[in-house]
Amino acid sequence: MSRQDDLARIHEALRAAAEAIRPFTPGAVDYEEKSSRGDPVTAADLAANDVLLELLPSENEGWLSEETADSPERLRYRRVWVVDPLDGTREFVDGIPEWCISIGLVEDGIPVAGGILSPSTDQLVLGAVESGVTLNGEAIRATARKSLEGALILASRSEWKRGEWDRYEDAPFTVKPCGSVAFKLGQVAAGLADGTWTLVPKHEWDVAGGAALIMAAGGTLLHADGSRPRFNQASPKLPNFLAATEELLLEFKESWLA
Fold this sequence. Notes:
Blueprint (H helix, E strand, L loop, with lengths): L2 H19 L10 E2 L6 E2 L1 H13 L5 E5 L13 E9 L1 H6 L5 E8 L2 E9 L4 E6 L3 E4 L2 E3 L11 E5 H5 L12 E5 L2 H9 L5 E4 L3 E2 H13 L3 E3 L14 E2 L2 E4 L1 H10 L3
Parallel strand pairs: 3-4, 10-11, 10-12
Antiparallel strand pairs: 1-2, 4-5, 5-6, 6-7, 7-8, 8-9, 12-16, 13-15, 14-16
Helix pairs in contact: 1-2, 5-6
């Protein structure tokens, strides 16, 4: 199977998942809390998950999704689909147009292809490390900014509300709070922002699709300690996640990462 076949499958699955979500109205949808932290889940999340599970994994491919019980069976496979059927459920529930469907394809622990579809903003970011990235079919790249001076950095709205970004009040870059880490990664891959980072743990399904797109667009992914993220791990929880150009991440780590 070629990479173009992978991208075609991602594209088809994203559109089908969006159709599964369409009957549910953002801002007017019932939800349940699925954890002690009060994380919401809706019938839209589950409907999209069913569609992605049907369309994406084939024989000899693994599966990891926020809305499917994890199984160590996926560790047997070289190729694993890592998805979040509706990243930014809280924004979806609140009617904020910063949620998306995220699909990542991981091979031997490395994200190699992905797609992020934001139905509310009509943005489809699709790409692979061999072929680059498109935004609604047009070729794009991450910004080539080499300094944090004047950069636009997207921050987690939850982290912003908790005051975790107050330390950057005097930084030379502009901070914009935004929902859904996958949505933020898609914006950076599409060159609509210069970087995004979260210094709290994230699951692989939150970032796998965006990670593939960032790499395909010429960007860099790091943990706060400078190591490179690996995917399809036994524990699918990453300690933190930074995405931008290599120059911006180096400057951030040296000057602003306490």
